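Our consortium's second objective concerns turning raw sequence data into structural hypotheses that experimental partners can test. To show how far this objective has progressed, the report includes one record in full. It was chosen at random from the queue rather than selected for favorable results. The single chain below, 249 residues long, was entered without modification.
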Amino acid sequence: MGILAGKTAIVTGAGSGIGRSVAELYAREGANVIVSDINETEGEETVKIINGQGGEAYFIQADVAKSSDHEKLVNETLAKYGALHIACNNAGIGGPSAATGDYTVEGWDKVIAINLSGVFYGMRYQIPAMLKSGGGAIVNMSSILGSVGFANSPAYVAAKHGVVGMTKNIALEYGPQHIRANSVGPAFIVTPLLKDFDDATMKFLESKHPIGRLGKPEEVAELVVFLSSDKASFITGSYYAVDGGYLAQ
């Protein structure tokens, strides 16, 4: 039996990249996985992959920037599997690249809506469901940029710092009620978020990681699954980098 046997998990942004890897590993460890994404085609593909590996997964489309979609997501999860024990709030976007004084208000609003408000909305509805299920574990996807700055990414940096702070609050508020919450800070990972970067930019990003390469989604998923499991039963309110040494500099 896997370390998540008998558990039900929600993963947002599970149609590709880190979210897909998390969903796959959750399923391999025995969880019933609700695969959620705004992109129906990619989300259904994740479900197909998991089911093809003998896992249990079900797709629910949701736009994380809409609180009503999170409410629907949790309600449909409960209707499907009867409980909620784990949530990985992973969905996010990179947003425009511009200095703060030139950053568009529209760009700011969109990044904050998805990367920060989307995490709050998720937890707002996940937590009551977890309380009814006897407790649970939340893993929020921050970034190395939840710990340091990065020029020309003010909205992303602000949102990811905010995710770290919100996660600490959940640990304080709900620890006595058996809900743990931690945040994970990946460095630059080979995902669709990097698809528009040219070779020179990719080489530059690789050079920023002392380990000499970018990360893989599967490497992030391993940490997420550990934090979601009872193996991490005394770990809450913390931030963990998966960064190839990026933050050691």
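The partners drew two points from this record. The chain has one domain: 8-241. The two ends are 40 Å apart (CA to CA). Both points have been shared with the crystallography group to help prioritize constructs.
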